[in-house]
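Any chance you could type out a protein's amino acid sequence plus the matching C-alpha cells because I've never seen that pairing?

——
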Amino acid sequence: MSLSERKEDEVRRLLAGPLPSVPPGLVTEATARGERLLRRQRAVRRVLWLLFCVAVVAFTVWAAVEQPWIRPPAETTPPLQGW
C-alpha cells in the first residue's frame, strides 16, 4: 500500500466516523472577531486614503508656491566671449 493510499484511507475513516462537537459560543466569537477585523481594515483603509489626500494637497500647495518648472534666475553673469 502506498503512502497516498494510506492517507486516503485514513481521511475516509475520519470522515465516516462521528463528527466532532463544536464548542458552544464558537460561532459568536468567530463572528465578533471577523467584525473586528473588518472594522480595523476599514479604518486602516480610511487613514491611508486620508494620508494620500493630504499628500496630494501638500504637493499641490508646494508646487504652486515654489513653481519648480520655472528656472531660477542666474546669480552670475555668463562669461563674455568674442571680445
